């Protein structure tokens, strides 16, 4: 991968499996990003895929890493990246202060303008690439101002240049899935 994979609550043999967070400098601002994964994985994947893997409490992990990001790095913005579902992301931000934005998945919820829970904007862009989620963040005031919207896949095609290498990779992946499903 050429990007960071972060998860604060995924353990293998008692140790964090991934880096729990990253800190990025964006212009004159410092942004802390941490990740969460759902314990639903226990029932949504084959058991052999998660041998030795444990999923810790999302609220405890969020509280711990929000505190680290705010206190040790003095970040201007905290973003949670989760694959936990709207019920669990809402529960986390109800009980954990200091998360500005929660970019979520798993429940395939369509949130056209995001959903505010306490002081956190939760966003999900529905499912299967039907929409492209867009979050605009203004850090010029005392506190961040965030707005969210969805762009249809058709409209997104007009805005984004296709990546041919990615298209080829996806074609190979689809072909392999079909081959395995048909037993060829």
Structural features, described:
This protein is of the alpha/beta class. It has a single domain, classed as Metallo-dependent phosphatases (Purple Acid Phosphatase, chain A, domain 2, 4-Layer Sandwich). 30% of the residues lie in helices and 30% in strands. The protein has helices at residues 41-44, 58-73, 86-95, 153-159, 164-182, and strands spanning 10-12, 15-16, 21-26, 29-37, 53-55, 77-83, 101-103, 115-117, 120-123, 131-138, 145-152. Strands 3-4-6-7-9-8 form a 6-stranded mixed sheet, covered by helices on one side. Strands 2-1-5 form a 3-stranded antiparallel sheet, with no helix packed on it. Strand 3 (21-26) and strand 4 (29-37) form a beta hairpin.
List the helices and strands and how they pair.
Blueprint: E1 10-12, E2 15-16, E3 21-26, E4 29-37, H1 41-44, E5 53-55, H2 58-73, E6 77-83, H3 86-95, E7 101-103, E8 115-117, E9 120-123, E10 131-138, E11 145-152, H4 153-159, H5 164-182
Task: Jot down its keywords.
184 residues, alpha/beta, Purple Acid Phosphatase, chain A, domain 2, 3-stranded antiparallel beta sheet, 5 helices
Distance between the termini: 29 Å
Low-confidence stretches: none
The CATH C-level name is Alpha Beta
| Major sheet strand order | 3-4-6-7-9-8
Total number of strands:
11
Radius of gyration: 18 Å
Q: Could you say which overall geometry the principal axes of the C-alpha atoms support?
A: globular
Task: Look at the structure and give the mean pLDDT.
Answer: 93
